[in-house]
Batch of 3 targets.
Target 1
Amino acid sequence: MTDLLGDPPSPGDDAGVSRRRLMFASVLAAALGPIVADQILGPTAAYAAETLNNPFAGWPVTGSWEDHASYSAGGTDYPLSYNTALPAPASGTLEYRGWVDSGGRRSVLWLDTPFNRVLPKSGTLMNGSSYEANGPIVGVVFQHQASVRPNGHYGQGAIVGYSGASASPGDGDYGGDIHLHIHGVDAAGNRVDFTKFVGSTTQPEIIKSKDGNMYLIWSTGGTGYLALPGKGLVGISSMQHYNLLKRVINSDQTAGQPEVFNATEIAWINSYLSGVKP
C-alpha cells in the first residue's frame, strides 16, 4: 500500500542497514530519561474521557424516532427557532454535505471517539424498510439548517451550525417547518437514535511502554500523538506510523524477542524519539 510518505523497503532487503534488530528498551535508554505519568498525561486533555451530551435536551421533542417511522429512516426533532446556535455534542470533525433530499442543509459531525449505546434500540420499522442500527454512534447528523460552520475540527460545545427550515433543494431557506432534525450514524452509515447514546462516556486508546517512558495516544477520529519526556506531544503522521510505534512498544513487552525494523522504519522511529514528526 502506498503511503504519502512512501512504502518502507522490504525487511528482506539486506543492503546496508535496511535490516536490523532493534530492542525498544535500548533505544529508550539512550534517548529518554525517567518520567512521571502525570507529566505526560497532563498535556493530553484533548484526548481525555468525554461524555456525549445532548445540547437540546431543554427543548421538548416534537418528533420522536417512532414518529418518523412512516416517512423517514429515523431521527429526533426539536422546535428550535430560526438561527438557533447548534453546539457540538462532543468533539469531532464537521463535514458539510450540502442540500440533501428533503433534509435541507445537512452536516455530519464525525466524532473523535465512538460512543456506545446507553438505552435499548428501537424495534420500530422505519419507513417500511429498516430498523435502528445497533451502534456505536460515530457521527451526529444535523438537518434543515439555516447555515453551517466551515468544515474542520470542533471541540465539545463549539457552535457547528444554526437551525433553520431548509428542505428540498430549490425550496429555499424556508422550504419546511422551522426546527432541528438530528440523528446518529454507525460506522456503516446506518441511522441510530442519537438520544439513546447520550450520557455514554468513552476515551481513546492510550498505550504506554513497560517502563512508563513513552505514551502512545490515538483517537478513532484519525489523530494521534506520541508523548515523550521533555519533548511534549509529537503528532503521528499516519496510521502506518501509529502501527509502527505500537510494534516498538510490543517489542518492549516481549523480553528476549527483539523486533525487526528496516532502515526507513528505523529513521522514522529515531525521528519520533527525537521529538520530530517525520
Target 2
Amino acid sequence: MSKDKVSSKSSSRSELGSASFFFFKWTASSLEVYKKAIKTNYLTPIIAHCTRAREGDEDASKNFDYSELGANPRMVKDDREEIRARLKDAKNRVWTNEEAKPSLPISLVELSTIYRLKTLVKMCEKLWAIMGRMIEWFEANKSVCHRFAFNKVRESKEIFAHIRRMFESVCAMGEVFRLTSVNWKSCKYSNLLEPNDSEYTCSENSRLVITSPASSYVGEFQSQINYYRTLVYNVAISFGVVLEYIFSSVNREQYAIQQNNLLQTFLREIANVLQMLPPQYKDIQQRLKFSRRTASLLNDPPKNEFVFPIINNEVSDESKKESEKKLDQKKSAKVSSSKYYHGRTNDGKSGRSDRKSTRSPSLKSEPTQKSDKSKSKSKSKSKSKSKSKKKSTLKK
C-alpha cells in the first residue's frame, strides 16, 4: 500500500472525528434553542388557554407538571383534591379590565396535548443536560477519542452516522413547528451531510394559533406532536449508540480512564429519558408535508409501550367459520346425549334406527352382583341343608 493511500485514509478518519465533534456540539446548542422556542410559542399558549392564566405565569405551568408521569399509567398520582382547589379558585377569580375574560371552550383533546408536549420538552431538557456533560468529557479526552474511537474506519463511520442522525433530527424539529431553520449549508463540513435543493429554510418562528372549535386547529397540532415525539426518540437512541461505540472502543483497547463509570451513567440516564416517552396519537388523518431529509427521519415512529385492546365490531370470515365449527360440535354433543336420554327405548328421539341395536348405557342402574361374603354364606347354608337331609335319611 502506498503512502498516499495511508495518508488519505488517516486524513478521512481525522476529518470524520473532527466533524463528529463539531456536529455533536451544534446538536446540543440547536436542541436548546428549539426547546425554548417550542416551549414559548406552543406549550405556553396552550397552557394559558386551558388554565385560564396569563402567559408567562410559572405557577400555572407548575400545576400541569406531567414530567414524572411518563408513559406508564400506573405512575399517575391522585391529585383530585388539588384539581378541586384549582377549580374553586377559578370560579371565585375576579377578572380585571386589563385582561379580557376568555370565551373559548376547553376540550379534552387540548388537555391531552399539554401532557404530551410538556413531557417531550422535558425530555429535551434532560437530553441537552447529558449532552453538555458529554461535551465536557470530549474536551477533556479528545486525544483518547481520536486515538481509539476514530482510529478505525468502521467505528468512525458509525459514530459519525449516528451523530449526523442526531443533528438532522434536531434540525427537523424546526421544520415540524415552522421555526427558524439552522443554516448548516455554509459550514465547513456541509459536504458530509449531502445537501440537496429541497432543504428547509425559514427566517422566523411560527406560533400556535388557538381557534374555536378546537377541531379547526388541533388536528395539525396533534400531528406536530407526533412528529416531535419521533424526532426526540431518534436523538435519544442515536445518542446512546454513539456512547456505546466510544465506550466499547476504549475498553477493547484496554485503555484505562477514570470516566468509564461516567459513560455508563450516561447510558442509564438516556434509558430513563426514554421511559418518559408519551404515547402517540392514533388515527391522525392530517398529514403534513416536509422536505425529503425530514420525511426520511419520520418514516419509523416508535410504538406505544402500553396498548389497550380495541374491540372491532366487524367479524372476519375466519372467526365466523370457527364459531360455526363450535356450534356444530355442540350440536353433535347434544345428539349423542339424546341417545343416553332415550336409552330405555334403545332408539334416538323415539324413532327406531335400522341398525342392530347394541347395548348402550342408560340411566337405569345395573343389577348388583353378590359379594364374596354373601357367596360364602350361601355355600355354608347349602352345606347345612345337605347335612340335615343326610341325617333324615339315616333315621328313616
Target 3
Amino acid sequence: MGVLLGGPLASAQEAQTYYLRCLRFYQQGALESAQTTCELALVSDPNHAPSLRLLARIALEGKDPKQAEAFLERLGKDPEAPLLQARLLLLKGRPEEVLKLDLPSGPEARLLKALALEGLKRYEEALALAQGLPPTLEARLLLARLYLALGKPQEGLAFLGSTPEERLMEGRLLFLSGRPGEAISLLESLLPVLPPEGRKEALRTLTLAYLGQGDLARGSAALSQLAQVENLPGRFLERTWPWLLTFLVFLGLVLLGESRIEPLRTVEVVEDPLPGPGSLYLYLLLSLFLALAFALFLGKALFANALALFTPYQQDQVLPSFYLVYGLALFTALLLGQRRRLPGLLGDGRTWVEGFWVGPALLLCLFLYGLLRPFLGLSTLPLNLLVFLGLALMEPFFRGLAPLVYKERYRDLAPALAALLFALAVPGPTLLLLLLGAGLLWAKERAGSVLGMATGWVVAGVVLALFPVPWLRRF
C-alpha cells in the first residue's frame, strides 16, 4: 500500500517543487522560463491546479488567448477560474461580458471590473472603482490612463512609479500636458531599456515632441527609427483610405465632367459671372491655411507643441477652434469675394426655422453613426459647440456657392461633386461628412435656403452641449 501511495505523493511533491520554481521566475518577469518550469510540473502531475493557474496567467500576459483558454478548461472549477476568465474576455475585446460574470469579492475583481468599464469608455465609473485599489503596477497604469481619458493628464502623473512601463507612461503624460522638454529627456533615457512595443510607443511620442518643437533633424531621425519597427505607410493608409477613395471618385467625376464640355464658338458677356472651380479651390486653400496657422499658434501657446492638432488629447483642445476659424475664413471669403451674391446664397431669411428639424436629424445621424463606427474602426466629429458653429459658417460655401459653380460647369454632376467636396475639404471622418453633405444638399433643395442648414448645425451643437460627457461617448 505504501508503494502504491508513494507514486502519487512523490509526483505531487515534485510538481509542487517545480511550481515554486516557476513562481519565482514569474515574479522576476522571466515568463518563458516560468512557462517551461510550470509545464514540467504538469508532467509530474497533469492536474496540478497552481501550475495550471499560473500557466493561464502567463498565456494571458503573453496575449495568447487560445493557450489561456486551454489551461482554463483543464483547470475546471477553481476559485480563481472566474478571475482568469474575466482576463481572457478582456484580452478578446469583450469587456461587456466581464461585468456579467459572478466574480469573487476582492481587489483583483474590482480591478477587472474597472478595466472592463475602461474598455466600454465608462471612464468615470472605472475611476470610482480603481481609486483605493492596492497600488500594483496594473492599477497604477490604469489610473494614469483613466485620468488621461478624462482630460487630466497632470493628475495621472501622481500615481506612477519607477518601473520602465510607468516611466514610459510618465513621458507620454508629460508631453501631452505641455511639458515636452521633460518628456524628451525622460524618453531618451528610457529607449535603451524598453521592450519592442514600449520602444515603438516612445518613438511615436519623441517624433511628435521633436517636430512640435521645430527640431526637424532629431524629428526625422526618430521617424526613421520608428519606420524600422512600424509599418508607417500601412498605418497611414489605414487612417486615410476613406479620404483617398473619396478623392479618386471626385477626380473621376471631374474628369468625366470636363470631357463632356463642348468648345465654345461664341463668347457671351455676363455682368456678374460665377467664379470657376479654380476660385472655389483657392478660397478653400486660403481658409484652410489660415485655420492651420491658428491651430499651430494655439498648440504652441497651450502645449508648447506646434503639432497639437495632430496629437492625441491635445487635438481635443485645439480642433474646436480650428473648425471655427476655418468656418469664419470661408464665410469671410464669401463676404469679400461674393458680396453681391451672398444674400441669394443664404436664401429667404424666414427659412431659418427649418433648422429645428435639421438639427435633430443631424443628431440622429450622428447617433446611428456612433453605433456603427466601432465595428468599422472610424472616428467621429469633435462634439463641441465651437465645431458646430464652424460647420454652420461653412454652409453658405458648401451648400450655397459650390453647387452653383459645379452646376454651371458640370450640369447634372453638381450634387455629387458638392457632397464629395465637403467630405474632402473638411478635416474629419470622411464617410460621415459625405453622408451628411449629401443629406444637407437634399434638405437645402427642399427648404430652398442655406439658412435652415446653418441653423440646424447650431441647434445640434447647443443640444449636444447640454448632454453629460458620458452620453457624448455614444456618438
